[in-house]
Structure formats: structure tokens, C-alpha cells
Amino acid sequence: MPETSDRKDDHIRIIEEEDVETTGAGFADIDLVHEALPEIHRDEIDTATTLFGHELSAPIVIESMTGGHPNTTKLNRALAEAAQETNVAMGVGSQRAGLELEDEALLESYTVVRDVAPDAFLYGNVGAAQLLEYDVDDVERAVEMIDADAMAIHLNFLQEAVQPEGDIDARGCLEAIERVTESLSVPVVVKETGNGIARETARRLADAGVDAIDVAGQGGTTWSGIESYRAAAVGASRQEHVGQLFRAWGVPTAVSTREAASVHDCVIASGGVRSGLDIAKAIALGARAGGLAKPFLSPAAQGTDAVVDLIETLSLELRTAMFVTGSASVSDLQSAEYVVTGRTNEYLEQRRS
Fold it and tell me: Hey, what CATH topology would domain 3-32+43-350 get?
């Protein structure tokens, strides 16, 4: 199996077997103000939201995780079937392997998502570093591969710096993102992979015309840590050390969400989002939706019903938060009062000074 495909299988194995979680997303520092007299019926609360003209039943995104190895087909099938059943959004992992390798079993790990989720909001995924090699037609092939409703361009340069075989030339990526955004047939989402997007970077992306920003902040799965485990396995001791040193690097998700939302009107909050309450807090901070990746991995291995069960739990948690903040709709929740405490408040204050 080619190197890119084997790497995808390594990533899933490490996430399942090793400690790749960090803390500090910042949601513990966000307190939504309680409404003791909500004057609404909990079961009549409308959790629906719209993403690029597609109405979702709830502002929940199954974040890009996997694809590119035959072993991942089962996972993507379960995730996509659940997205279809519950009408939430879902992304696939990097499609680089699908674009560069001619292998039907490998391609099925991506194409299965549209096969089983004909109506779901699905988005594709290519790396910013690969845009230096790809033209717009190549990205269109990624769109066509899964009949995507949008395309994510992921920023993962810390991860690449730790990989022994990583792409470490970041020159020209913003220009390439702008070129794709101008010409692609579907909306473009630029997403980080666990280290967050600061206000200044979000503004550059907004100026480049991207349709949404997924902050994927510090505080959840650490790709630096994952690559550190991979480096250790091949005896790359320096990369192993660097991966551990930068394990908790980045802009915390709560901070990144508020900063990105101050300069762009469509922000997805991910990175350490672990509950419907976290999603509610993210929306109050300015996000359009909240995304989760690792929490869906174990349910996906169990099957579609387990993924649906998690989505329904997240939805009930979100609905409860909306009820006790007096928010009858997601737009109401975006105006909910909140208090910022602790490290997150200090971080935001320092950034304002």
C-alpha cells in the first residue's frame, strides 16, 4: 500500500490506541447566563440552521477524519449513514490519496459517503500544501469524487513539520486558496487541524473570499502528538521530540472562534468540542455550527446506530442549553449572554491590548 494511504491507517490506529488528547479549548471558561424564566417550550425549540443554503436539523458537523485506506471505508459508511439519517453535516478526510492513487478499494473509502448519504451535506478535503501542486481542475475532481456540497482546504503545517516526510513549503498557499475560491464550483471552507486560526489570519482568509472558516483550535486531538508517535515508530527521534514539545501549541478554540467570528460571518468551531453544551457556547461566541471528530471515531467503529445515538445526545444537550438560555432558535442563541473567565478571558484581554 502506498505511503500516503498507509499514513491514513497509522493515524486511525494511533488515535484509537494512544493518548492524543489535549485540554484547554476554553469552553470551561465560558458561562452562558441562565434564564430562569425562558417562556418557551423545550420541545418546540428550533435547532435548525443553514449552511451554504442547505438546512441542517442541528448545527452539528461530523468533522473530517478519514478516508484513503480500505480499512477506513467502514468508518466513513457509518458516519455518512448517520449524517443522512439525522441531517447533520459531514466531511471526509484528506482526498490526496484518492486523487493521486489509482485504487478502487481506496477510492471507495471516499465515494461510499455519497452512496449511502444521497441527501446529506458533505464536504471534501484537500491540503493547502497540495494546492501548490494541484490546479483547480484537480480540486474539482475531489468535489466530483463525493459529489461534495463544499470543499475544505486544510491547514496543517505544524503536523507537516513534525512528519518525517511532511510538506514544509508554505509559500504561496494564500494565493492558491484565493485562486481555488474564485473558480471552484462549490463553496470553500478553510480549516485548521487542531492549532486554531487567529484573527489576523481569519481576516486574510476573509479577504481572499473563502466562504467559511473552521477554526479547529487547540484543545482537542493533537496532530503534533499523533505525528510524534509515528516518528517514534520509525526512529525519527528529533521529530518525536518536536511533536511532543508542540503537543499543546495553538490558539484555544474558544478564543479562535470569537476572533474569527469578528471578521467572518460563517465560522465553524471545532477542536475540543465534546458536548452539545460546548456547541451552544461556540454559537454564543459567534459560530454558525460546532464540529467534532474524535468523539465519533469509536461510535463509527461500532456502526451507524452508535453514531446516530451520539448525534441525538449532542442534540438534546444543545436543546437543553437553548432552553435554559431562553433561546427559541439558533439565531437567538447567537445573541445569548455569556461570561468569559479564567485563562480564556486573560488571553482575549491580552489580544485586545
Answer: TIM Barrel (3.20.20)
